[in-house]
């Protein structure tokens, strides 16, 4: 092995020695990076810093990102994930190395792993191109300490620089990394300008000839006591056409991050978050999660009742699908299947958690619906295969992706139409699609920009919250968490819809499911918590509860209590 230099070895040894791996600690990159109790995370974060710097070197010095967050998890947890140069999640091909490095038992073992990996990947250490890692963190109390660990890891690769972008939403950092590598404006101010301007543009394009009641402009947002609420407070006065009131805003004294509030709580528990009450009846409400990469909507219907009407990621996706289809039809002519002005491969990506009623609704529209495993890293990759790919997890994590090639065609079309048919329905529709591609985050799911797109589409359609709810009726569903000895002993297949190990478990699930009308049930190990998740769907809530419980009992019995 070529010696990368004494200095490089020494730098790696020094960084690894500051944050030794405690006995028994075991990290796994999981669904969305490393996560654990915040005070135990420093070794994994420091090592993720090394990985991020190596990734940047591998990509010829392109900026990559590192964000310190445990998203929807409790405030005491923390985590780290790496953002690739395109603004998406780190290449899955690098996860095994990240796992190995995070679990390297000693500083010496860590150095050997890095040297071997650099050699295998053709990365020149100790003096190749410079590397750059953009850093961000959410509002968790352990964030600052872990940021320091990340910086130490990055600096352990000679020639790498860490650029602290501050306290941001996770999607803001993804957006910055993508923009920077495309030589676009990439500051936080630029992000705010882009979303507020494209939102304004979409509202200007709302047709004035539509019938129906004026949409209620009032919107209440549950910020999960996290960073999303704080960022929204900063820009809400620039969002003309909306009257936003932020609750659980993240300001001092308002409440605890993600505790009985936020998108994960609202979607899973289907009850109103803390701080909401009868005064909010019938107002459209949105809920972000702790790092603002998930979005759901809800409405409180009657006083004294904590249950809500929930609009989850599936229904957000369906709303976006209808809007985009309407614009494509306006451009191409609805019945013109032969000579389309703008031929478009339009696809939708969901996971096993998608409510069966939503999938049926989308298929009935004639759309291509693909399924992937849970995790934005899988959905995003699949959605990139289309000219316009929309993905959403039921939990509210998703976005709409426009391919670069499609955007160029759209830009040429709008230029052409602006000279021959300016103001025509076709021209307006093309402009709407362009504004949509500017508004909605092209790097990752983003609660803030997703919410503004929802608001623009509702105004465009003159739709009330009820119109939106009425798109289809969700099948009742139930989710449970089961604690077991070793959740990784469950192995799944078919986009996590079937279990292949331990043997016999799938047959038991099939037998239970067969007892229920519209019954569906699957189990999978979580990639962010030490639990097995059980999802059940059936024609009544009571049936869901029983189905989920009986399958959970099988899981507990077969896998053993912890
Ligand atoms: C992360 C991922 C999501 C995933 C969720 C739950 O969300 O980004 O794609 O759905 O975890 O994953 P699991 O069921 O494996 O625990 P977040 O918002 O926590 O980053």
How would you explain this protein's 3D organization?
This protein has three domains: 162 residues, Alpha-D-Glucose-1,6-Bisphosphate, Chain A, domain 3; 287 residues, no CATH class; 83 residues, TATA-Binding Protein. Helix 11 links the parallel strand 11 and strand 12. Helices cover 41% and strands 18% of the residues. It has a five-stranded mixed β-sheet with strand order 1-3-2-4-5, with helices on both faces. The protein contains 18 helices and 19 strands. It starts with 5 loop residues before the first helix and ends with a helix. It has 562 residues and is of the alpha/beta class. It binds 1,6-di-O-phosphono-alpha-D-glucopyranose. The site of 1,6-di-O-phosphono-alpha-D-glucopyranose has 18 residues, from loops.
Question: Can you give keywords for this protein?
Answer:
5-stranded mixed beta sheet, 3 domains, TATA-Binding Protein, 18 helices, EC 5.4.2.3, Alpha-D-Glucose-1,6-Bisphosphate, Chain A, domain 3, alpha/beta, single chain, binds 1,6-di-O-phosphono-alpha-D-glucopyranose, 41% helix, 562 residues
């Amino acid at each position: 092995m070529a010696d990368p230099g004494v200095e490089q070895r020494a730098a790696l040894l020094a960084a690894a020695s500051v944050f030794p791996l405690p006995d028994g600690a075991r990290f796994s990159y999981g669904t969305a990076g490393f996560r654990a109790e915040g005070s135990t995370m420093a070794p994994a974060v420091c090592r993720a810093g090394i990985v991020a710097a190596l990734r940047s070197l591998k990509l010829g010095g392109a900026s990559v990102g590192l964000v310190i967050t445990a998203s929807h998890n409790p405030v005491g947890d923390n985590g780290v994930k790496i953002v690739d140069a395109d603004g998406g999640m780190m290449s899955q091909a690098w996860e095994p190395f990240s796992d190995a490095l995070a679990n390297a038992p000693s500083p010496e073992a860590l150095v050997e792993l890095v040297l071997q990996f650099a050699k295998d990947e053709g990365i020149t250490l100790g003096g190749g191109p410079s590397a750059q890692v953009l850093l961000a963190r959410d509002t968790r109390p352990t964030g600052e300490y872990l940021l320091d660990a990340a910086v130490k890891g990055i600096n352990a690769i000679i020639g790498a620089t860490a650029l602290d972008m501050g306290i941001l939403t996770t999607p803001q950092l993804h957006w910055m990394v993508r923009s920077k590598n495309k030589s676009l404006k990439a500051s936080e101010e630029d992000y705010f300008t882009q979303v507020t301007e494209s939102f304004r543009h979409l509202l200007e394009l709302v047709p004035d000839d539509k019938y129906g009641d004026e949409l209620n402009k009032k919107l209440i947002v549950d910020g999960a006591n996290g960073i999303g609420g704080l960022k929204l407070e900063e820009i809400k006065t620039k969002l003309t056409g909306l009257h936003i009131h932020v609750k659980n805003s993240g300001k001092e004294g308002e409440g605890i991050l993600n505790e009985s509030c936020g998108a994960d709580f609202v979607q899973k528990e289907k009850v109103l978050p803390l701080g909401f009450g009868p005064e909010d009846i019938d107002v459209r409400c949105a809920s972000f999660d702790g790092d603002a990469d998930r979005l759901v909507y809800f409405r409180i219907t009657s006083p004294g009742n904590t249950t809500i009407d929930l609009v989850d990621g599936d229904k957000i996706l369906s709303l976006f699908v209808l809007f985009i289809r309407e614009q494509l039809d306006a451009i191409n002519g609805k019945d013109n299947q032969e000579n389309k002005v703008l031929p478009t491969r339009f696809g939708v990506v969901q996971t096993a958690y998608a409510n069966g009623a939503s999938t049926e609704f989308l298929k009935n529209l004639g759309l291509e619906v693909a399924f992937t495993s849970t995790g934005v890293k899988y959905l995003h990759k699949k959605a990139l295969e289309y000219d316009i790919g929309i993905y959403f997890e039921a939990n509210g994590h998703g976005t709409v992706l426009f391919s670069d090639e499609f955007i160029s065609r759209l830009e040429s079309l709008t230029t052409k139409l602006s000279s021959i048919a300016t103001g025509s329905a076709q021209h307006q529709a093309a402009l709407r699609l362009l504004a949509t591609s500017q508004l909605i985050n092209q790097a990752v799911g983003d609660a803030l920009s997703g919410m503004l797109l929802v608001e623009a589409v509702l105004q465009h359609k003159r739709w009330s919250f009820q119109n939106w709810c009425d798109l289809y009726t969700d099948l009742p569903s139930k989710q449970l968490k089961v604690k077991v000895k070793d959740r990784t002993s469950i192995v799944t297949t078919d986009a996590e819809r079937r279990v292949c190990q331990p043997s016999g478990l799938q047959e038991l699930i099939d037998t239970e499911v067969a007892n229920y009308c519209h019954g569906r049930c699957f189990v999978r190990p979580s990639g962010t918590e030490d639990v097995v998740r059980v999802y059940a769907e059936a024609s009544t809530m009571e049936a869901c509860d029983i189905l989920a419980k009986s399958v959970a009992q099988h899981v507990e019995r077969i896998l053993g209590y912890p």
